[in-house]
Fold this protein.
Amino acid sequence: MVNLSNNKIIFSCTQTQIERNIHDEIIKFYGCFQLGFFAKYEALTIANSIRRTVLTQSRQYAITAIKIENIKHEYSSIRGVKETIFDILKNLQKIILSSERKVFKTQILCVSESGPKQLKAKDLKFPTFLHCINPNQLILTLESSIQFRMIIFIDHISVYSSSLFTCHYYKNLYLYLTQFKRTHSLLSTDFLLLNPKTSPILNLNYTIHKKTNQSEMIIFDIWTDGSVHPAFLLRQAIQRLLVLLVPFYEFKKVIHFKYQKPILSKLFLSKFIKLDLCNFPIENNLYKKLLNLRVSTIGDLYKFLLKKDTVSFNQLTYADRFQIKQLLKLVHLYISRRYIKMDN
């Protein structure tokens, strides 16, 4: 059996770059990450679990539905528009949106254009917190001097919210905003839905490197479409796995003898303090500041606070200190619950 108790837990980004395709002007994010150390044959199991979890994630923001006057289904066509409704839906699906904020309210864009003209993503008036990655993405082509009107719905996508985006939901929202009194004039079929679960992952590979002490390290290579950084997706996947597995971990089912409690508690704490701060609910700006202060794990954070270095501590804003305070409360609550289960 390999003794990994003295090995440092590593979760770091070794390389990151931005790749731009000249032909389609799509920006790609690339990141290379190392994760370890693991005992022999454990790395393959963990790498497969993380990879599958990363691939199930979707973009944070996406166009989820549209409404076009007198259009009932995606197989229709509009006189004076070159593209069919099906082509318009496919073009809207290709628009990549990004944001550093989480806004859960549905955003509504009203489009009113007259031809002849090519309508592109840059012509849409997105909310200020949304950034379009590919503004030159073509939506449709107006070949004659017609008036084209369309309503676009944009939503924040999560694992649990995607099932809420139905025609009935958009109909009620539209009626509420326009304050229609007669609901029979608008049908649910007037709304065309887009697939909200579009993955931002373009490619994902991993390799397992074996070390001299028979331990193993996982190397992830991740490419995204520019809407989100690969580091965020990897951290989010690890957090999702932890949330799924931690509730099944019971100390009282493992411990049978009283003299084993101190051994298991020390083993638990030794691994817990080596967890990278990216596994905890803190903002990216604070995470970068702490890395500059050489604080990368939860153990480093406690050492940093015990040193009481006023020069380094003054580099943190009031909001940063409040986040650290909330994080420590969560850590204390988590550890206290673990030890309550041990005593029982």
User: Anything to note?
Assistant: The two ends are 31 Å apart (CA to CA).
